[in-house]
Design a protein that fits this description.
There is one protein chain. By secondary structure, this protein is mostly helical. It is globular and about 75 Å long. It contains twelve helices and no strands.
Length: 290
């Protein structure tokens, strides 16, 4: 069977999987939560701007512009920084959702004993490889959707702020310096890494709950190990370098071990992703021989 045809078969199986619909529903809920979070943050900043506007007249705008401390308080009011909010929420919740999806797609085949049928018809190794390709592709899709959602919110926030508080239009604030494509790429690299990790664990442990618990445990333990070469530390450093985290948003990295830089952090994530993917494929090939 041709590769495209084989991926088409796996795509149909994946679309019929209950895990796909459960995770898709949770991703939609997470993105809706990001929209509500954006409105809440904008409302908090609007209150601060309203208080400022009662004390400052248009003749005092220049003195406000020259005050760095005052300008720092309005950084989160910029619509350009609101673009990162859906991606930031996805980066915080997405690893757990993608891990459940990656473990569920392969684990369901093992628990229902359909892996033997798939091995007889297509080969268990190619089947696992196709599922991992679909997991990585799904991570790319949800990262793109979150980025586009952030871009869609930008004119809404800009119009609401400029209409209600014209003072902000006179204050030149810095634009977010990182492109939306870099932000989406950073989130995608972390999600794909954890999805492949869950695929590896479910093949090694042959249990979906055990693989999911193992992945979640590794994510939490990685937060306490301040070593730049582990996936969680590299992901946190990459997010800190690319995303803009407004004050009060959930999921901001607490402690980021410095020294790697964003490009090396990306290289660490890609290396771990390749290792997890190759390890899962090797285990699947060995199970196929058995």
């Amino acid at each position: 069977m041709r590769v495209s045809g084989f991926l088409g078969v796996e795509w149909k199986v994946t679309c019929r999987s209950r895990w796909t619909w459960i995770i898709l529903t949770l991703v939609v809920c997470a993105l809706l939560f990001a929209c509500l979070m954006t409105l809440r943050l904008m409302g908090q900043n609007n209150e601060a701007v309203g208080l400022l506007q009662t004390h400052l007249g248009s003749d005092s705008v220049q003195s406000f512009v020259n005050d760095p401390d005052a300008l720092a308080g309005f950084r989160d009011t910029q619509p350009s920084h609101g673009v990162s909010v859906p991606l930031a929420i996805l980066a915080a919740l997405g690893p757990f959702l993608v891990a459940a999806w990656g473990a569920g797609l392969i684990g369901s085949e093992i628990s229902w004993r359909t892996n033997r049928v798939r091995a007889a018809h297509f080969g268990w190794g190619p089947t696992v490889l196709a599922k991992m390709v679909l997991v990585v592709g799904g991570c790319a899709c949800i990262a793109i959707v979150a980025g586009l959602l952030g871009l869609a919110w930008k004119p809404v926030m800009s119009h609401a702020i400029s209409t209600r508080y014209p003072l902000l239009a006179l204050v030149p604030l810095e634009e977010a310096g990182v492109s939306i494509f870099a932000q989406m790429g950073a989130v995608f690299s972390g999600l794909a890494c954890y999805g492949l990790l869950a695929s590896l664990l479910v093949l090694a442990l042959r249990s979906t709950p055990a693989a999911l618990v193992g992945t979640v445990a590794l994510i939490y333990v990685g937060g306490f190990i301040h070593a730049p070469w582990i996936p969680s530390a590299a992901f946190a450093e990459l997010l800190s370098a690319t995303l803009s985290y407004p004050a009060g948003i959930v999921g901001a990295p607490d402690q980021v071990p410095g020294g790697l830089g964003p490009w090396w952090a990306l290289a660490v994530l890609l290396a771990w992703s390749c290792a997890f993917g190759l390890g899962a494929w090797a285990i699947a090939k060995r199970q196929e021989v058995r």
